[in-house]
From TrEMBL:
<dbReference type="Pfam" id="PF04542">
    <property type="entry name" value="Sigma70_r2"/>
</dbReference>
<dbReference type="InterPro" id="IPR000838">
    <property type="entry name" value="RNA_pol_sigma70_ECF_CS"/>
</dbReference>
<dbReference type="GO" id="GO:0003677">
    <property type="term" value="F:DNA binding"/>
</dbReference>
<dbReference type="GO" id="GO:0006950">
    <property type="term" value="P:response to stress"/>
</dbReference>
<dbReference type="InterPro" id="IPR013324">
    <property type="entry name" value="RNA_pol_sigma_r3/r4-like"/>
</dbReference>
<feature type="domain" description="RNA polymerase sigma-70 region 2">
    <location>
        <begin position="27"/>
        <end position="93"/>
    </location>
</feature>
<feature type="domain" description="RNA polymerase sigma factor 70 region 4 type 2">
    <location>
        <begin position="117"/>
        <end position="168"/>
    </location>
</feature>
<dbReference type="InterPro" id="IPR014284">
    <property type="entry name" value="RNA_pol_sigma-70_dom"/>
</dbReference>
<dbReference type="InterPro" id="IPR013249">
    <property type="entry name" value="RNA_pol_sigma70_r4_t2"/>
</dbReference>
<protein>
    <recommendedName>
        <fullName>RNA polymerase sigma factor</fullName>
    </recommendedName>
</protein>
<dbReference type="InterPro" id="IPR036388">
    <property type="entry name" value="WH-like_DNA-bd_sf"/>
</dbReference>
<dbReference type="InterPro" id="IPR039425">
    <property type="entry name" value="RNA_pol_sigma-70-like"/>
</dbReference>
<dbReference type="InterPro" id="IPR007627">
    <property type="entry name" value="RNA_pol_sigma70_r2"/>
</dbReference>
<keyword id="KW-0804">Transcription</keyword>
<dbReference type="GO" id="GO:0016987">
    <property type="term" value="F:sigma factor activity"/>
</dbReference>
<dbReference type="InterPro" id="IPR013325">
    <property type="entry name" value="RNA_pol_sigma_r2"/>
</dbReference>
<dbReference type="Pfam" id="PF08281">
    <property type="entry name" value="Sigma70_r4_2"/>
</dbReference>
Length: 172
C-alpha cells in the first residue's frame, strides 16, 4: 500500500466520522480523476463539471454506506460514471469540445489530426459504450470492476466493449 493509499483511507475514515475538512481534502485529491471520467462520457467541460459536483455531493451524502475505505476511488468512479451516463441520456443535445480545452489535462504526443478524428469517433459512440471504453482502456479497470460500477453483468461489459472497439475501428 502506498502513502497515497494510506492517506486516502485515513481521509475517508475521518470523513465518515463527520470531519468535513477531511472530505474537502478527498475532493481536492480526486477532483481531477472524477472530472476526466465525467468529461470522457459527457464530452462537455461545463457538463463534466456539473456531473463532478453532483457526484461529490452524492458521495458526501452516501459516504456512510461505504464499507471499505480502500474502495473509495472505485466507488467514486461508479458514482461519476452513472451520473454522467444519466446526464447524457436526459440531455437532448450536447456539443463536444476538443480535448485540448480540458483544464489541466496533459497533452499527449499525438498528431492533432489524429486526435480530432479520434474525438469525432468517440462522440459517435453511445454514452454507455464510451463509458466502458474509458473505464477499461484509460482507467484500466477489469471487467468485474466495471460490471460492479455500472451494475451490469460481466458479459454485457464484454459485449459493449467489443461493440465500442468495433465501432471505433469502423469509424476510423
Amino acid at each position: 500500500m502506498t502513502g497515497d493509499d494510506e492517506l486516502l483511507i485515513t481521509l475517508v475514515r475521518q470523513a465518515q466520522l463527520g470531519e468535513e475538512s477531511a472530505f474537502a481534502k478527498l475532493v481536492t485529491l480526486r477532483h481531477r480523476h472524477a472530472y476526466q471520467t465525467a468529461y470522457a462520457i459527457v464530452r462537455s467541460s461545463h457538463d463534466a463539471e456539473e456531473v463532478t459536483q453532483d457526484a461529490f455531493i452524492k458521495a458526501f451524502r452516501k459516504l456512510h454506506t461505504l464499507k471499505d475505505p480502500s474502495a473509495f476511488l472505485a466507488w467514486l468512479t461508479t458514482i461519476v460514471t452513472r451520473l454522467a451516463i444519466d446526464h447524457v441520456r436526459t440531455k437532448k443535445r450536447h456539443i463536444a469540445e476538443p480535448i485540448e480545452n480540458i483544464a489541466d489535462v496533459p497533452a499527449r504526443a499525438i498528431d492533432p489530426t489524429l486526435r480530432t478524428i479520434l474525438e469525432e469517433a468517440l462522440d459517435q459512440l453511445t454514452p454507455a459504450h464510451r463509458a466502458i471504453l474509458i473505464l477499461r482502456e484509460r482507467d484500466g479497470y477489469d471487467y468485474a470492476e466495471i460490471a460492479r460500477m455500472l451494475n451490469i453483468p460481466i458479459g454485457t461489459v464484454k459485449s459493449r466493449l467489443a461493440y465500442a472497439k468495433q465501432s471505433l475501428r469502423n469509424l476510423l
